[in-house]
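Input.
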Amino acid sequence: MPLPSFLGIGVPRAGTTWLHELLGSHPEVYVPSRRKELSFFDLHHDRGLEWYQKFFPPASEMDRFGAVGEITPYYYYCEACPERIARVGIEKLVLMLRHPVDRAWSYHGQKIRNGMFRGSFESFLDQERWPVIEQGHYSKYFERYLEHFERKQILVLLLEEALLDLPATQQGLADFLGVSPSGFAAKDAKAAVNSSYVPRAPRLYGLAFRIGKLCRQYDLDWLVNSAKRLGIREAFGAAGKPEPMRSETRARLDDLFRPEFAKLERLLDMSLDVWRRTPVAGAPDAPVRKAHTDADSSALPL
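Output.
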């Protein structure tokens, strides 16, 4: 029964689309081109493994690839996913993390773009549908995975470091997945991928987004992909970016997450100093190094 050899498990708005494209450029790596987020282990588990296998090469072709996988960033937050993934024998997981304040900010921008939220970032933090503050406490979710996987089975990439040193990122992925590091296509690490913006016609864009999601539910991927190739998304245009994050909001959230960093470092056995060097967005005395936030689009294109 052909199943993936690895999974990308998270997190949303931390570069998983960028990672999908990077892995898809490698001839020894197979990731589905039909659909990036299969959501099998969280949303569609009841459809069974036969449905899941349709997204991957048949058994007769699996030997062509050194690694076969898929990336669904919401697996990280799914309570049932660690056990379900371990039960089918998938042994390698890739986790991309991002400074939790920047991830929350980007998530807000995505919901505005998709017509799912209208309002300030501060009001977004208070709503309950998307608990971005809770989800930024990454350690509690990582502990769930450690109940079913050894630490060495999980490759953790920090988005900020992954973009700053692309060759090292490619080498790390190649070593972990067992493929050649030279197979990745040349890529601009800061090319915009799935960026947040405000469409010129947000209501129409939101309607198109919801229709696309409905089509995916009925496995009409060909229709959604055809619309993308025709440039439907670009046709809506961009009216600009969401309003910048208030410096006092940034400072408050940085203080809130500071204890989490120390706990997460112990779990990951890796430094998070790149997050501590992130300055307050808009602060006049910020360090020379750019903040990795959507408020500064030149720093992070995601």
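The domain at 6-100+124-191+261-276 is CATH 3.40.50.300 (Rossmann fold).
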